[in-house]
Design goal:
The protein is mainly alpha-helical. The chain has 2 domains: 131 residues, no CATH class; 51 residues, no CATH class. Helices cover 78% and strands 0% of the residues. Helix 1 packs antiparallel against helix 2, helix 1 crosses helix 4 and helix 6 packs antiparallel against helix 7. The longest helix has 44 residues.
């Protein structure tokens, strides 16, 4: 029963996720909360591992969540579930691409999906901010009472140094992750 549930959850996520892995993360988190599969901290750890391992973050996250929920077969069910919709959709697109690529309806649908994708990515940013940089209350009216108690300044330093290292020194994501981990051990 758990395998069918994992397959269904991730098939549904794979079917409605446009815009890449970061769009899928809020969807995965919502499903995890609904079925009480793991805690917020466990999910944050899984996302961190998903970013560090090779491959698309959505597939890695699905695999890790599936494994955490039901071992090897859970990982298989979740991975197949999240990838199967894209495979089916690509087969359909290949079959009908020339017929519908100039369709105004198809273009309108895609134009509607793009801003929603940005919104879902912003949701992922808020989720990870709550899990590492600020407290949940930061995104409420309590922010105006005393914002400084709601911010983890040490985590903000790591965040800023990561952006600085990526933009100014062009340090790659693997090295940035390693350096941020070392810095986390030192200052957090």
């Amino acid at each position: 029963m758990v395998l069918i549930k994992l397959f269904y959850i991730f098939f549904k996520i794979g079917m409605f996720a446009f815009g890449g892995g970061y769009v899928i993360l809020p969807m995965i988190y919502q499903e995890i909360q609904m079925f009480n599969l793991m805690s917020v901290d466990e999910f944050s750890d899984i996302v961190a591992l998903s970013q560090m391992t090779p491959g698309p973050i959505a597939i890695n996250a699905a695999t890790f969540v599936g494994y955490k929920s039901d071992g090897f077969w859970g990982a298989c069910a979740a991975t197949i579930g999240v990838t199967l919709p894209a495979f089916i959709i690509m087969l359909l697109i290949i079959a009908f691409i020339n017929k519908f690529k100039e369709s105004e309806i198809v273009q309108a649908v895609l134009k509607g999906i793009r801003p929603a994708t940005v919104g879902l990515i912003a949701t992922a940013i808020i989720f990870f901010s709550e899990a590492s940089i600020v407290k949940k209350e930061f995104f409420t009216l309590q922010l105006f009472q005393n914002p400084f108690i709601l911010i983890n300044f040490k985590a903000c330093i790591i965040f800023a140094l990561t952006i600085f290292g990526a933009k100014v020194f062009k340090i790659g994501p693997i090295m940035l992750t390693i350096l941020a981990g070392i810095l986390g051990v030192i200052i957090l």
